[in-house]
Amino acid sequence: MTATPRTDALMRRGAEFLGSRHAILCGAMSWVSERNLVSAISNAGGFGVIACGAMTPALLDAEIAATRALTEKPFGVNLITMHPDLFALIATCATHKVSHVVLAGGIPPKGSVEALKEAGAKVICFAPTLALGKKLLRSGADALVIEGMEAGGHIGPVSTSVLAQEILPELAGDNLVFVAGGIGRGEAIAGYLEMGACGVQLGTRFACASESIAHPNFKKAFFRASARDAVASVQVDPRLPVIPVRALRNKGTEAFTAKQLEVARALDEEGIAMGEAQLQIEHYWAGALRRAVIDGDVEGGSLMAGQSVGMVNEEEPVTDIISALLSQSEAALVRR
Ligand SMILES: Cc1cc2nc3c(=O)[nH]c(=O)nc-3n(C[C@H](O)[C@H](O)[C@H](O)COP(=O)(O)O)c2cc1C
């Protein structure tokens, strides 16, 4: 008997798929989800995921090797589909026999899912709608993550609660669906598990764990913030393919507006392609997030955070966070 039998039973399919004790993924967070946090999550019975972000294949290679040195437990790698070297990054994952790869940031390009599966990896994709979820499963995705707009980082337009109601009853019976976005406590986990989710993914709740290398200033900003401080970015030019980003409001939020105007001007005056415009915007975010997470520039950098940030109040070891989530979930299920 485990301490949380009801939660474990509802997470069984997800945990078997991940090869972890609990079906709790720590969603990849660029600059934050590196060897230390990822190995700590997996060692604590969750499932850590390396954020490849804008890394080169050589950097990813080193990060996977360093993570392996810190944990014998399985972990995944998150690749951004618009990365110009996506197929080289897939080859790096294949060399290391990475067991699970999460494809994020858009519909996977032709051949990417196939290449990963050929290498023996399980492929997890983000499903922004029910129709796309079905399509991704038909194209070979082994599991889906549905992520609502409460989440930190790049977001879609629909809330987690609505996505869960639209997608879980249709797909979660026969497929593996993880729910993400806005989860700060175990009671919410219990709710999504009861609706059919096989597990959950959290980012914001883990970003300030003791094992996270995020700068103390970044962590302090999280501890001070409440849900309403985590705002979605505003699109200033409808032509720009800007994916909204949820982050704590600061001077960097205004700088992003200026960046968009600069890119829009380059579209008009220099005739840069739309793909290049999107890449410039994404590079901006990667740089701004690095400034906040690594350098501690919490004024000018990007403090990507979800609305659950109000429930992040202190630095805690990953094991404590996972135990708290599990016992809150279990208590909720016992009360039913
Ligand atoms: C600081 C930060 C950086 C993130 N970077 C990425 C990323 O590089 N790739 C990705 O797929 N998701 C990224 N995310 C999203 C997380 O993986 C996760 O899905 C999300 O945080 C879950 O919602 P929550 O923040 O409400 O828990 C990021 C989130 C945060 C807070």
TrEMBL record:
InterPro entries, sorted: Aldolase_TIM, NMO
UniProt xrefs under CDD domains: NPD_like
A molecular function GO annotation: oxidoreductase activity
Listed Gene3D superfamilies: Aldolase class I (3.20.20.70)
Keywords, in A-Z order: Flavoprotein, FMN, Oxidoreductase
Top-level taxon of origin: Bacteria
Annotated EC: 1.13.12.-
SUPFAM superfamilies in UniProt: Inosine monophosphate dehydrogenase (IMPDH)
PANTHER family cross-referenced by the UniProt entry: 2-NITROPROPANE DIOXYGENASE, 2-NITROPROPANE DIOXYGENASE-LIKE PROTEIN
Protein name: NAD(P)H-dependent flavin oxidoreductase
